[in-house]
């Protein structure tokens, strides 16, 4: 089944070129079906790319998914055209009285700031509080996961001695959990961040279950016992080129950036990148939509 998106959203044509099944809103309204309503709070600077990344992985499911895009009104994005935001995004004030089956909070390049110093932190807290009553399940990604763990459970983040950058091996701690259904015992996932959360802090919280972690990348997937809050500290939605584009961008800026680990063939940036995480990414999002959203949400929020 398709993911339903606005007809003119740039991601639509890009995904159609990849033979990803997407459906424009004009066709979707003619179908008598109750799609899953998914809200995406996009905090990433390159919003159009992030839209494409997320829509790609959300499309790999037999469920019909209708996506709405949200941005913070307390921070004006600098890297996305205003006409794109006006055409395709809503503010929290516009959607606060609605209910959604699922909600995704993306990462953001602000992890070296204290949470309270982030310009939109107060607004984000209001949104996360709202999600507890208006959303069936919320999926937090990268910095969004750190922000969610801090807001809901007081778990701090820690600055690392060097940026965690690359694709890393992870382990399944609970193969019986539906979110991990179909996972191999070990799998790979991309990370790009300067801060982390610690396993010992997560394990102190009785309401949290640590489903997956990594020797190099630390805790990866945690969730609340009622499955309404899911925290993923990496970027499983990244496409083949994302880490490479980040590496070359930082090099062009004169930054001392290291090569992304386990990304290029033979660790040679002149060679192609090796995608090790695509199957895991699609399975993670499909399981989240099926087990934590579709099978848990009310048919009619009333």
TrEMBL record:
It comes from Marinilabilia rubra. Its main location: cytoplasm. It is found in: Cytoplasm. Belongs to the MetA family. One of its GO terms (molecular function) is homoserine O-succinyltransferase activity. GO terms for biological process: L-methionine biosynthetic process from homoserine via O-succinyl-L-homoserine and cystathionine. Signal peptide: none annotated. NCBIfam families: metA. Transfers an acetyl group from acetyl-CoA to L-homoserine, forming acetyl-L-homoserine. HAMAP family: MetA_acyltransf. It holds the Pfam family HTS. Keywords: Acyltransferase, Amino-acid biosynthesis, Cytoplasm, Methionine biosynthesis, Transferase. InterPro entries: Class_I_gatase-like, HST_MetA, MetA_family. It is an enzyme of class 2 (transferase). The active site is at 142 (acyl-thioester intermediate), 235 (proton acceptor), 237. Pathway: Amino-acid biosynthesis; L-methionine biosynthesis via de novo pathway; O-acetyl-L-homoserine from L-homoserine: step 1/1. The record marks 192 as: Important for substrate specificity. This is Homoserine O-acetyltransferase.
